[in-house]
Specification:
The chain is of the alpha+beta class. It is built from 2 helices and 13 strands, in the order βαββββββββββββα. 13% of the residues lie in helices and 30% in strands. Strands 1, 2, 3, 4, 9, 10 and 13 form a 7-stranded mixed β-sheet that branches. The chain has a 6-stranded antiparallel β-sheet with strand order 8-7-6-5-11-12, with no helix packed on it. A hairpin with a 4-residue loop joins β7 and β8.
Amino acid sequence: MSHLRITALGLAALISSALGVAPAQASNSFAVVDAYKDFLPSYTAGPADGDMDVIAAAAFYDGADKTFSFSTILADKVGLTPGALYVWGIDRGRGTQRFLAGSPSIGAGVFFDSVLVVRPDGTGAFNDFINGTSTPLDPAHIKISGLTVTVEDLPLDLLAPDTAGFKADPALYTWNLWPRLGLGSNNQISDFAPDGANLGFQVTAVPEPQTFAMLLAGLGLVGLRASRTRRA
């Protein structure tokens, strides 16, 4: 697994890395290139299909517009596995390793106090465990196309930033992504991206859709090249 900090100006270098040139890494990461077919051993609830396997993911916080955006590339077309869900866990300052208490115990290092749940049909919800609320997402913010799931321009207010105990600067929130097959048991979770850690947000204006798509395509190329290298 590689953690990368990427900007639009660095996209060419990213795609070059997919062709065999290793990019420089930075300590402040907002994106992850995840291993191919790295299904959790505890995942026994369903098939090991490609739409349950994260290849790459990234997240942004636009400080000017005060919005969050999330996106991922999967190893196969979204919708292949009936009942699949894509869940971003977000730690706003009161996150815990909630999966450790489940059965089986998994997810050491994955902290969250809320989740963003997206379904392949383009619907979703934001579930706030601290404030005890569940808010349906406007489908206009959800984009699903081929291998990609993107949630764009979620307003900061949705994440209840003024709640006691949260980090004062929302740019310091962190995230992890996991596909899962339904809700209820830890054996439904197929993959964590990244493994055993949270990532921060890229704090910048979110790229234009074309640039965002190119960036994610570059991430996907990195992941797919890495998978081919391992299989060879």
